[in-house]
Design goal:
This is GTPase Obg. The protein is an alpha/beta fold and about 350 residues long. The chain is built from 13 helices and six strands. β2 and β3 form a beta hairpin. It binds guanosine-5'-triphosphate and magnesium ion (MG).
Length: about 350
Amino acid sequence: MNTNAYDTMMIPTIPTPDELLDKGFRRAKKAADKVRTSKVPRRMKGKKIEETRVIAACQIIKDSLKMILNRVPSIEQLPEFYQDYIDITVGVDEMKKSLGALNWAFGILTQLEKDFGSKIRRSDSEKATMYQRQAYGRIASVVNKIKKDLNFLDFAKAKLRNMPTIDFEAVTIVIAGFPNVGKSTLLRQITNAEPEVANYPFTTKGIQIGHLEINWKKIQFIDTPGLLDRPIMDMNDIELNAMVALEHLADTILFIFDGSETCGFPLENQLNLYNEIKKVFNLDTIVLFNKMDIVKTKEIDENYVNQYINQFNEVILISAQDGNGIEKILNKIESIEKTQKEEKFEKY
Ligand SMILES: Nc1nc2c(ncn2[C@@H]2O[C@H](COP(=O)(O)OP(=O)(O)OP(=O)(O)O)[C@@H](O)[C@H]2O)c(=O)[nH]1
Ligand SMILES: [Mg+2]
């Protein structure tokens, strides 16, 4: 069983059609040169050289294609989180289409290799050279036909480079909330992760992960980009990836409110988002009110904030920046068990 799908998700370097052809033809020439200096009977030599060029060119290009096809795992076999992540980031259909095109080219090259190989063997010497040229033309045309597919895979490689490494065995706590409420600050406080923290919204653009062990229990915290209280249809790819993390990975949600509203968003909207997430995901939540250091010192109307705090049975008041309240979060988290998700591990 391979639970670290990420290792297998690395897309290898993707060549351009020209690079594929150059390599194929160059190596084929070398193979043919060997025949030239070999002891093949003279009258056979010309044909043997052409046959070798065609077969070697096909095989070398096929090897490159096969290597790519083998190294990119079939998408259905990945945990659902990765499938969704790939779908949002580059598109699963396009990915499959491109891999399908490489497979198609592989098949055609096998056919060309066979057909032209036997044509050359059955022909006389002069015709052999003509067939070799024809074969090279066909090979070039097949490889050029998958140009956009190779391009796409190269693009996907770059886009998926930052795909997060998920530990599917650890208890997973997803940190969610409005932009700028202090999610990344909290991740920095709790774990050794060092996500960027800044006093403007939408700082975090991808999924960030920090690890922690409490009493030998592995816990994984996932910091997500800030979400707004808006319909899923209106979300951009970055927000959708945060939702997908909630859906597939979270055992518990740490939902952060910014009690000071210095994030720039009213508590009312933050509460709407909380309710929406509760509705969409049937998950336990730990509710945090952050930035309580400024609520206390900056004469923000405490009654106003309390009116929101009092809506919850259980709330932890914190200052992620000062580290106040972090102990309480950890105590709470200690008792959380991994929920059984229907990730399809059996497939590995
Ligand atoms: N006073 C105070 N400021 C805080 C606290 N926690 C975070 N901040 C500040 O709030 C701002 C936003 O913090 P981030 O941790 O980047 O917030 P975020 O939720 O990750 O934001 P996005 O990634 O943009 O969604 C930064 O300027 C932090 O220094 C806190 O407890 N008290
Ligand atoms: Mg952040």
